[in-house]
Amino acid sequence: MSNVQGSGHDRSRVAGKVPQELVHKRASTEVLLTGWATHGGDRHTVHARWPRCHTFYRPRNQRFDSLLFVETVRQTFPLLSHAAYGVPFGSHLVWDDFSFEVDPQAMLLSQAQADVVLDITCGDVRLRRGCLVSMTMHADVSLNGRRVGRASTRFTNHSPAVYRRLRGEHDLAEVRRRALPPLPPLPPASVGHWRSENVVLAGTGRPGRWQLRVDLDHTVLFDHPVDHAPGMLLLEALRQAAHVALPATDTMVTGMSVSFEGWVELDTAAWISVAPLRHGVLKAVIEQDHGPCLTAEVTVGTVPLPTGRPHGSDPSALELASTGPAPRPDRAFPLG
């Protein structure tokens, strides 16, 4: 596949919607980014717009979902890799680590259009024969002109041939055939959702431990066929586990620090465990039979409960508020 600079996409684009192939999405409705600009060197500005009512990343307590923030940042990785660093389509971006934090007060829904700006600096950019090998990214993010949070990551880029050497040959139809069927979900309100199809945890009968629930037909988490559990599915599992572990209606996940240590396979049970680390912080692990696949710290913050429904707010946000219980790894993990 040709370099993106020769495929008709501009290196600076600040209006409309980013083409879905540049953010590795099949559904254009799932594209959050609206434009980008490169300022020379390794500095970039990316623009996005948040929907007030996303089908999966729904508001809670009249605040935007912190995983909507994460998905927005995630979409910048392939965008800039292709548009600014010439990564060919068909290559595989592989997560090493990811961290973020958001300000709950800045995440409030408002009457204004939710315009998001990400100021991004790339560092430790390593090239081999002119092709991107790895880099770090740091993003400072604002919502309607107010700083809302930040995120950092390191990822690597692999050609299809190198990826096959890392993963082996995977026929996607066979991967789907062998995948474990989705288990019965936890009650949606217990994990901060209101639809059972959006629950990614199944009970085990043991406090602080759940089995990953994988639904390959989920239109957001499995937007396109993959040979592993996507990274966003695993981060969502951490978020949902935090809601179960700290069951309060006036909380939200405000940050994570995640190390990806291996792929989570779809034909083997995966287990999520959390335990208190310090006040408001949980230690989390996702593991399979071969050992830990992901380790993380998850931060949960308290937010004021909403006092009423603002004009145009999402009813599900209030429903959940009133009914809800409330070092670099040696291995890496694909972004999906």
Describe the structure.
With 336 residues, the chain is an alpha+beta fold. The protein has 5 helices and 13 strands. Strands 1, 2, 3, 4, 5, 6, 7, 8, 9, 10, 11, 12 and 13 form a 13-stranded antiparallel sheet that branches. The radius of gyration is 19 Å and the shape is globular.
Please give the alpha-carbon distance between the first and last residues.
19 Å
Shape: globular
Question: Could you say which structural class the secondary elements and strand pairing correspond to?
Answer: alpha+beta
The quaternary state of the protein chains shown equals single chain
Total DSSP E strands: 13
Tell me roughly what share of residues is in helical segments: 10-25%
Mean pLDDT: 86
Number of helices: 5
Please give the radius of gyration in angstroms.
19 Å
Sheet bearing the most strands, described? Answer: 13 strands, antiparallel
Give the amount of beta strand, in percent. 25-35%
- The stretches of 5 or more residues where confidence is low (pLDDT under 50) are 1-10, 309-333
How do the SSEs run, as a string of H and E?
Answer: EEHEEEEHHEEHEEEEHE
Compact overview of the structure:
With 336 residues, the protein is α+β, with helices and mostly antiparallel strands. The protein has helices at residues 66-83, 160-167, 172-178, 231-245, 315-323, and strands at residues 33-38, 43-49, 92-102, 115-128, 131-143, 146-158, 201-203, 209-212, 251-260, 271-278, 281-288, 291-302, 333-334.
Fold topology:
Blueprint: E1 33-38, E2 43-49, H1 66-83, E3 92-102, E4 115-128, E5 131-143, E6 146-158, H2 160-167, H3 172-178, E7 201-203, E8 209-212, H4 231-245, E9 251-260, E10 271-278, E11 281-288, E12 291-302, H5 315-323, E13 333-334
Antiparallel strand pairs: 1-2, 2-4, 3-6, 3-9, 3-13, 4-5, 5-6, 7-8, 8-10, 9-12, 10-11, 11-12
